[in-house]
Structure to design on (76 residues):
């Protein structure tokens, strides 16, 4: 995916990226520099996000594996 920097430094994130991350108008993004890279992170100040890391990952190797399993369509 690509985005173009406009005259005033603004960019439009591709719709696929916004949809995948649940970004809507007014969503706060943290901007980080990593060498020559710009990293945007969704600001997570809601109650659910604050609870992250406080629960066991029963049967999963990593948080990412648990999220993938939760996102998979239900097996019939």
């Amino acid at each position: 995916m690509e985005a173009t920097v406009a005259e005033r430094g603004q960019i439009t994130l591709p719709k696929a990226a916004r949809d995948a991350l649940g970004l809507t108008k007014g969503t706060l993004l943290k901007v980080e520099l990593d060498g020559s890279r710009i990293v945007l992170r969704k600001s997570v100040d809601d109650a659910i996000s604050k609870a992250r890391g406080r629960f066991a990952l029963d049967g999963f190797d990593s948080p990412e594996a648990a999220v993938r399993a939760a996102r998979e369509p239900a097996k019939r």
Observations:
- The beta strands are 29-34, 37-42.
